[in-house]
Amino acid sequence: MITLAIDFETANERRDSACAVGLAWIAEGRVVRRASHFIRPPEMRFSPGNIRVHGILPADVAGEPDFGTVLAPYMADLAGGLILAHNASFDIGVLRAGLARAGLPVPDLSYLCTVQIARRVFPAPEGCGLGKVARRLGIAFEHHDAGEDAYACAAIAVAAMRETGTADAPGLAAAIGVPVTRATGGSSPARPGAGAISGRAMAAFAPTSAVLTFAMRGSTGNRYAVTLEERVGGPVLRCTCTAGRYGMRCRHMKALEVGDVTDLLSDNLSDVAMLARMLGLRAAS
Questions:
Q1: Measuring CA to CA, which of 120, 147, 175, 239 is 20 to 30 A from 104?
Q2: Is pLDDT of 125 > 50?
C-alpha cells in the first residue's frame, strides 16, 4: 500500500482556501519522495493571522494553478493509499473541501493522524505538536512550510515504526492501537457511536444557538474560555483571551480548529472532534 504524508496551508479560515500543499511518500521504512506546490485559492482573501503563520502572500500564488489542477497528479495515490497528517482532521478536511469546491469527486480516503501516533510512541508533558515532536526526535525542518511539514510528518511516522519494530504504517497503527480512519466519498468520516459523543456536542449540529465551550490554558497558565457560537452565517469561535476579545484568531482557537488538545483543560475531548467536523461542514458549504 502507498503511504504518503500531506500538509496544507490555508489563506483564511475556510477549509477550501488552500494556498499550498506538501506531500512526502514513505517506502521501505524511509521517506523516498517529496513534493510541494503553491495553490491559487478560489478567492484571494488572505487573513492576516494565516499570513503570520505561513508567510504566503496573495502575490505569491496569483499565477499558480488551482486546487484541482495541483492535486490531480496525486489523487490516485491519495485515494488508493494510506494518508498521514499531523492533526489529520484539518488536512483531510482541507482536501475534501478543496475537491468539493472545485466540483471534483471526493474519493474514499484512509488516513492516520501522527499526533495520535506521537502520543502513543513519543509522549511528553510539553505535548505533541509537530515542532515539539520533531525537536525531540532531531528532525530538522522549516515549520509552516507545507513541503517541510509533510516531510516532518512522514519522518515522525518512520521514527515510530523504528521505535516499535513495525515494517509499515498499517502495522504501526495495529501495534499501538490507533485505528485507521476511513472517510467515504462525499461524506464525513464515520462517527463514533452516539454514546461516545456528549449530548451537548450533538445538539450543536441542530440549527439552534447551541454553544460548545472549551477551557484552554494560556501561555502563562491563565484559563480562557473558547466557545463555538451558532450564527446566521455559520458557527464562529470566540475566546476570552486578549487577542480573542479584539476579534483575532488566537492560538487557542487555532489549536482547537486542528484538534490540538495540548492545552485543553476541560473534560470534553470528544467535543473537539465534533468541533472539527462542524468547521469542516462550514468550510465545505
A1: 147
A2: yes
